[in-house]
Each structure stands twice: as structure tokens, then as C-alpha cells.
Specification:
globular, Deoxyribonuclease I, Chain A, 27% strand, 260 residues, 6-stranded mixed β-sheet
Length: 260
């Protein structure tokens, strides 16, 4: 009987703050095989991960050079064949934006795409990142046909993915250019795993701290598991977990059946 693997992706908005809010205890109650964390805002030596090791996880980190900024980490109960930190781009790698774990039959890329919300300069940097990242993914997919790309994309793809599409039509994260980039991704060998199973509105993964947005569910769906077409038949479920509250994001997960 093939095993079903459970994978989680979660922008924790600072892993130390999230642990203080009970992240470690929540993970202990779950049974995820692979956990991809973004915006950990920490270096490995700054965080006591003994709790994760007791649960059977290895922890692999790729942190920004700047302390308290960006950074990703992947916890895994399965032994990876290889861990690849970064994308071979000096600027993006200095910001700790991606880590890939190769398991042989499939690979998992954990990514934190830059935000452009602080102004035109950061938005331009974000668009340059997206151009580079698309080409990088296309090459990566040749090497790892069964590829999962999860994390905080900082983009809403469709009007259904944002609480007020009309007033946000020129907002960073919902510009026509960013939405077109997401369309291009899903037209070139990747599946939006959540929308593969769920076409209903009002499902979001991030809420502003302002105006009681989370309690009113006025959010944005900016976190994704993009799964390569080659994994389509093994994809058995995808969820958003809005009730889990250690961050301004909530976690998302998928279930994949291992190949026979």
C-alpha cells in the first residue's frame, strides 16, 4: 500500500515569535512528513530546535546574511538525498530565499518571494526576481520532474483570491503583471494544488493586522503549493488552515501518495 505523505508550508513571520505563540506544540500534535517555513527571521544557532528533533525532524536552514530578515527552513522526517541552499544568484541567496530538498522520486523547493509593498523600488526588485525565478524553475523542473514549489509567493493569482479585487487592482501582490506571472507558471507545467480541489471564494492565507481583517476574513491568498503536472495523479488533497494562528499568515498543506 503506497504511503500518503503530508507536507506543510507556513510563513511564520519570525520563528522565535511563532514558537512563543505555541508553534512547536501545534506541530507536535500534527503528523507532517515535511514542513517548509518561510520568513523565519533567524539563523539556525539562534533557535533551540530540540523539540523538532524529539519529534523526528531534521532541520535544514538557509538564512539571510542580514540578521532578523527573510530566511527559510525545512523540517523533514524523511532523509533527503541532497539539500540545495539558494538559486545561484548572489543577491537573492544573500537574502535566504530558497532551499530545495531532493528525495529522489520528488523534490520540494521552499521559497519566500520578495514583497513589493514598501514602494516602487521593492516592486521593481520583486519583478526582477520573478523573471529570474521563472527561468530557474523551468530548468529545475528538467532535473526534478516531480517538483513541489511551496511558500509565500506574495501574489494573489485571481480575483477569487483576494477580498476586494477592485480596490486592490493596482496593489503590489495583485498587479496585472504579477497575476500574469502566476498564470504563466500554471500554464507551464505546474498546478495550483488548492484550486485543483477547491473553487470556492473566501479562502485566504494572509490578513493585514489592520482593521480586524482576520476576524472579518478580509484576506489574500498568497501562499501556494505549486505542484508539477507529473505529480497530478499522486495529489490527494490540499487545504488552507485559517484557524491556526501563530503568524499573520496561516499554514497550507497537501497530501501526496508516494509512487509505487
Amino acid at each position: 500500500m503506497p504511503k500518503t505523505l503530508k507536507l506543510l508550508s507556513y510563513n511564520v513571520n519570525g520563528i522565535r515569535a511563532a514558537i512563543k505563540k505555541g508553534l512547536d506544540g501545534w506541530i507536535a500534535e500534527q503528523n507532517y512528513d515535511i514542513i517548509c517555513l518561510q520568513e523565519t527571521k533567524a539563523h539556525q544557532e539562534q533557535v533551540d530546535m530540540e523539540w523538532a528533533k524529539k519529534l523526528g525532524y531534521e532541520d535544514h536552514w538557509f538564512s539571510a546574511e542580514k540578521k532578523g530578515y527573510s530566511s527559510v527552513a525545512t523540517l523533514t522526517k524523511m532523509k533527503p538525498l541532497e539539500v540545495i541552499k539558494g538559486m545561484g544568484h548572489e543577491l537573492y541567496d544573500s537574502e535566504g530565499r530558497s532551499i530545495l530538498l531532493d528525495y529522489g522520486d520528488f523534490a520540494v523547493l521552499n521559497v519566500y518571494i520578495p514583497s513589493g509593498s514598501s514602494g516602487d523600488e521593492r516592486q521593481a526588485i520583486k519583478m526582477e526576481f520573478l523573471d529570474f525565478f521563472f527561468d530557474y524553475l523551468m530548468e529545475l523542473k528538467k532535473k526534478y520532474p516531480k517538483l513541489m514549489v511551496c511558500g509565500d509567493y506574495n501574489i494573489c493569482n485571481k480575483a477569487i483570491d483576494i477580498h476586494n479585487p477592485k480596490s486592490n487592482k493596482n496593489s503590489s501582490g495583485f498587479t496585472p503583471e504579477e497575476r500574469a506571472w502566476m498564470d504563466k507558471l500554471f500554464e507551464n507545467g505546474f498546478i495550483d494544488s488548492f484550486r485543483h480541489f477547491n473553487q470556492e471564494p473566501d479562502h485566504y492565507t494572509w490578513w493585514s493586522f489592520r482593521a480586524n481583517a482576520r476576524n472579518n476574513n478580509k484576506g489574500w491568498r498568497i501562499d501556494y503549493f505549486a505542484v508539477s503536472d507529473e505529480l497530478k495523479d499522486q495529489l490527494k488533497g490540499a487545504s488552507i488552515l485559517p484557524e491556526v494562528k501563530h503568524s499573520d499568515h496561516c499554514p497550507i498543506d497537501i497530501k501526496i501518495v508516494e509512487a509505487n
